[in-house]
Design brief:
Shape: globular
Helix content: 40-55%
Distance between the termini: 34 Å
Largest sheet: 3 strands, antiparallel
Low-confidence stretches: 34-38
Bound molecules: zinc ion
Mean pLDDT: 84
Oligomer: single chain
Strand content: 5-15%
Number of strands: 3
Structural class: mainly alpha
Radius of gyration: 17 Å
Number of helices: 8
Order of helices and strands: EEHEHHHHHHH
Length: 168
């Protein structure tokens, strides 16, 4: 499944569609059902994320009961305070390179602990914990190495979530 952002002239906000293939007018009519039948012109964005897409992503994450359960605990907060965000994110960059970026990461699906490092918690909260979640939520396909840009995207998402936690 990939994440497709579809912008129709009829609607101000883009619509997120999870589909294996690039949506067509015919498939959009099915997705939108009868009331949206007037959709004629639309634009499908690829599944590479940009800044706007990160806004969309966080809106979707906000609607997920499972993702919303994750919070920084006292231990992770203390660690973050002691080390500072910059050091924490440098650990994050290492985790991404070692545990997420390879085409076939070791123990994929179970490679990210649930606690003990702010980045681990952030990864579960933002669906950047494994290649399955990256594919489903971020539209980054499994079975190939992450590009530098995709690694950057993952780190940006993680950092934003951690910053959000410290503002609470
Ligand atoms: Zn996962």
């Amino acid at each position: 499944m990939r994440v497709w952002l579809v912008r129709c002239e009829e609607f101000a906000r883009p619509v997120i569609i999870l589909a294996r293939r690039r949506p067509t007018l015919a498939s959009l009519k099915v997705v939108f059902a009868v009331s949206y039948d007037q959709v004629r012109r639309f634009h499908v964005f690829g599944h590479a994320m940009n800044v706007d897409d990160i806004e969309e992503l966080f809106e979707r994450l906000d609607r997920s009961k499972f993702r919303q359960r994750f919070r920084l605990g006292k231990r992770e907060r203390d660690y973050l305070t002691a080390k500072g965000l910059e050091v924490i994110m440098s650990h994050g960059a290492d985790f991404v390179v070692q545990r997420l970026a390879p085409a076939f990461p070791e123990n994929d699906g179970k490679q990210t602990p649930m606690r003990n490092h702010p980045v681990f918690v952030a990864q579960h909260a933002t669906a950047t914990c494994c290649r399955g979640c990256l594919e489903k939520w971020h539209g980054i396909p499994k079975g190939r190495a992450l590009s530098p840009k995709e690694q950057e995207h993952v780190l940006r998402v993680i950092e934003r979530w951690i910053r959000g936690q410290t503002e609470r």
